[in-house]
């Protein structure tokens, strides 16, 4: 049937009149139909549903964050939690108050649900990438955050160190466990490189103590002899660098032991040169630079066994304590038989590794350090 | 009447009904419902929805919950309400997985008695018969005729609701009227 046939006999004017519901004498049948169809709209509407009746009676429930005009009636107790969708046909019961904590819980739950849905909606490759990223961030965070217990931090740090060294070729900070192993005198020389860098020298506790002491050190403008000595005896920090002396020079000079952190390049050559050269009981020759395998003369004793002459008391340097790095021990270790008067090693502040103080050269710890012969950055 | 399609018919309620409804006034909701519920229900029934009462309620709940986003005049409000009804009907049929339940009218299968000449006066066509006649139209024609006559929308408004051009709507209504006239003549309704 063509449109021309469809339009047969229905003029445009009649069509408009018909559709408006006006009677058209030329089209009685169509007029009757249109009137009957229009009459269907005049029938009473069906009864509203319960939800619609509630809306018609009390208005819409007020949502959080929406502006309520002044003077408008807000039905009591009609609260809809933020972000919560009220399905059609449902309404919040009258007088039911939703506490704030529950609303926050609902909001948190909604966000978590959306996050899960978003994660579920991504592709497989994106999921793998996301999981790997989360795992990497977790391990890195566990390795770097001090608040993490050592039992967790040590393996995490080991993993991160391995990955970093594998990727960049640059080793990372020593493991706390390694530092703990190397906390014996003559091995743990860490200081001198950068005081702002945490130097895990002898376990985490000592390392933290060192850091806390370092933070207090810069109060003075010029490091005095006392201060340098103090630094040299605390936590293996190298003495204050003299003008022109670099930290690497300190390390190479053997003053205060490798002035690097961990497995730095400066600390390795002495190990390589004298890997198995034990420090003979009785100590090396005076003036021998303290290598990791060869503790310097006057290597302090362990906390429980302070060596005589160990410059342990801050502010009272032991004679012969190499106060100025860059000056290699010129064969002038402190006289072994001349300990610092009145300067017993305080057990509460043990002489930390890396102390380049003189020793009598007969200490067991020196031998221990020689036997270990490793810097603090050794790997397990 | 809210937003009738007739330009010459002055609206009986002002724009404040819309503003009060947007403020959440129950009285404004009731006024809108009373004026538009009948046409909306008739439109929903003409589409053959199984439960027109529920669908009508859903339409007005959607209207009232979304009226804050509406901006326009009363005429546009009427068109907007029927747009929601149109989409709600489509959603209803999609949920049920089938199309409109109207079957083509077969005069031979109609067992009802033919009204007498006295009873066949104008306007005596019952709603069921009207719907049976509507079933002879195509979906597009039925949609246009219902929106034009029941919803009392203009050609432009119908075009906006169904998403067609006005020329297409005019062509559809012409063909629909021609088809209805043929069906009425074949049925032999005394006029």
UniProtKB/TrEMBL annotation, chain B:
Signal peptide: none annotated. Keywords: DNA-binding, Sigma factor, Transcription, Transcription regulation. It comes from the Bacteria. Residues 98-122 are annotated as: Disordered. It holds the Pfam family Sigma70_r2. Residues 40-98, 133-181 form the RNA polymerase sigma-70 region domain. Belongs to the sigma-70 factor family. ECF subfamily. One of its GO terms (molecular function) is DNA binding. The keyword S-adenosyl-L-methionine does not apply. This is Sigma-70 family RNA polymerase sigma factor. InterPro entries: RNA_pol_sigma-70-like, RNA_pol_sigma-70_dom, RNA_pol_sigma70_r2, RNA_pol_sigma70_r4, RNA_pol_sigma_r2, RNA_pol_sigma_r3/r4-like, WH-like_DNA-bd_sf. GO terms for biological process: DNA-templated transcription initiation.
